[in-house]
Amino acid sequence: MSIYKCLQSGIQQGFSHLRLAFYLWAIFLVISVITVIPLISLIGKNLGHSLLGQPVAMPFELNLVEIFLNHQALLGPYLSLLLVFALFLAIFSFFLNGGLFGRVLSAEKTNLRDFLADGTRFFWRFFLSGLAFIPFFLILLISYRILVSPLNLWTEKAVTEWPLIIASNLKLILFLLLWTIFRLSLDLVRIILVKEGDRVIPSLRATFLFLRRHFFRFWSLFLWLGLVYLLITLVFFFLGKLFSSQQLAGLIMLIILGQAQIFFRVFFRIVFISAESCYYMMYR
Q1: Where are the alpha helices (DSSP H) in 79-199?
Q2: What is the pLDDT of residues 208-236, one digit of tens each?
């Protein structure tokens, strides 16, 4: 019953923070434009001659990793610039998460000034908590390698493709389950940092004490939310199949659908945080 109540509370809080979702969507849109337009221009300048005869929308569909692998001589010098920009975005994400958690867990109405203030207030604590979780992430990766080793031994002796297909799916499911454990733990640390106003180390201790008592029910809440998120994401996926990027109208619809999906992801991130906070406040 408590899980259902927190699911309901999370969805309600999501709709009450639509302005916050809009702020984050707008920030992501600006970042995407700053990132994608120079990259597309670079690809067009260096590879445009090799793309003659292709549909206009084709460069947007090409896999960027494949482009860099196939044209390392032309695009290699720009890789370091992209890595620096990716590092900047990773650090900037701590600021955005500070504003996100601060506003979602606040009883006050959301405005841009308070969002920016919360991002500044919680930046260092979120950054330090992220660093503190690196060993935990490495432990999960080692655990994943250990758990999939029997599957690797099984597929080495396979004489048909079915063991390979089954093993790859089981590996994916196992990785996603371990990833949810990492994400819910990190979310809980951030919730405690904001709600209790503690420093990083006491918040880490409070997180693991809470998970020791309530891990499986808290995890089940996270998995239910993840299932709802996955189902709605599949709806976006199948809607995208209805349009063709070879036509201008279809391309415009795909762009609109893509932005709607980004807004949905931000909205559901708020739902996740609100539901997790609800459960924590109920059983802390």
Answers
A1: 79-104, 112-132, 134-156, 162-196
A2: 999 999 999 999 999 999 999 999 999 99
